[in-house]
């Protein structure tokens, strides 16, 4: 009998049964992203797109911790952030495909979305200074600005200027770091000196790191910390040790097959499917059918026409 390989600590983590609403959202994001890659393969999409495959649980875990009055700032890998904030897959896919019903008339595409206090950008590090300015206007209101960045963004000078101002001005800012260990094709060890925790400490900003993919566990950890951001008007850096199981964009994955297989073992999708099939399977089917309907309907729409401001 062949011995099974030892699993790393995140893979041995016991996942609690997911709430159906959380699982529905996780699977909506998963199948939305997979559908985008299929549409690209068929030549139905132009430009580029960056999927969050493997990282979907981060915005889903944060969803109930964010209020309607909060602002959310995203990045190039932001479809999951958007869908966790606004359950509008038709509008998002129409935007990416440049079809009628698009969120921004089709001029934003995959990376640049502005919709009801949600803003994403493909320019690395751009969101953080804008989020600090927005958070400054939110002081004393109980609302906050949440900004998602990756480990690669910590090479941008604007990040440090923004963090410095955020701490000096004591603004209600939640910085969510999706640390997947690779910036496009460069491992974190080759592009980052020190740690995210050390850099936050340099600005006297509280830092919390989690390796968990258990949504309930993550929320329990972060709920009091996010509440303190609102109450004390003080920034927080929340770092997620996560894994990108899909390509950087479209099909350009430069990792070795062995590395891709290693990160895939951390995927919440296969673990939930194995642990809770009676909950997972009907939710998975429902999400697949929903995204298929979205793709069919949006693909049949006429092209969007930008008529100017």
From TrEMBL:
GO molecular function, one term: pyruvate dehydrogenase (acetyl-transferring) activity
Source superkingdom: Bacteria
Keyword Iron part of the UniProt annotation: no
Domain Dehydrogenase E1 component, first and last residues per copy: 28-274
EC number: 1.2.4.1
PANTHER family membership: PYRUVATE DEHYDROGENASE ALPHA SUBUNIT (PTHR11516:SF2), PYRUVATE DEHYDROGENASE E1 COMPONENT, ALPHA SUBUNIT BACTERIAL AND ORGANELLAR (PTHR11516)
Protein name per the record: Pyruvate dehydrogenase E1 component alpha subunit
Organism: Thermocatellispora tengchongensis
């Amino acid at each position: 009998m062949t011995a099974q390989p030892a699993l790393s600590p995140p893979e041995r983590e016991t996942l609690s049964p997911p709430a159906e609403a959380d699982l529905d959202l996780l699977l909506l994001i998963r199948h939305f992203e997979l559908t985008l890659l299929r549409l690209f393969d068929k030549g139905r999409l132009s430009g580029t797109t960056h999927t969050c495959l493997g990282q979907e649980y981060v915005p889903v875990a944060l969803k109930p911790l964010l209020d309607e009055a909060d602002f959310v700032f995203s990045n190039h890998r932001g479809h999951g952030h958007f869908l966790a904030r606004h359950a509008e897959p038709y509008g998002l896919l129409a935007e990416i495909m440049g079809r009628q019903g698009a969120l921004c008339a089709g001029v934003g595409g995959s990376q640049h979305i502005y919709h009801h206090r949600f803003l994403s950008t493909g320019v690395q590090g751009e969101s953080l200074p804008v989020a600090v300015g927005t958070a400054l206007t939110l002081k004393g209101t109980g609302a906050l600005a949440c900004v998602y960045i990756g480990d690669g963004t910590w090479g941008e000078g604007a990040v440090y200027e923004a963090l410095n101002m955020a701490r000096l001005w004591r603004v209600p800012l939640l910085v969510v770091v999706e640390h997947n260990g690779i910036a496009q094709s460069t491992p974190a060890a080759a592009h980052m000196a020190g740690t995210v925790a050390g850099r936050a400490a340099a600005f006297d900003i509280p830092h919390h790191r989690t390796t968990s993919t258990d949504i309930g566990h993550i929320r329990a950890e972060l709920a009091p910390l996010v509440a303190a951001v609102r109450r004390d008007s003080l920034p927080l850096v929340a770092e997620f040790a996560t894994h990108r199981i899909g390509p950087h964009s479209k099909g350009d994955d430069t990792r070795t097959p062995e590395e891709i297989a290693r990160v895939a073992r951390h995927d919440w999708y296969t673990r939930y499917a194995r642990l809770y099939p009676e909950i997972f399977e009907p939710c998975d089917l429902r999400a697949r059918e929903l995204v298929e309907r979205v793709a069919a309907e949006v693909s049949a729409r006429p092209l969007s026409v930008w008529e100017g401001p």
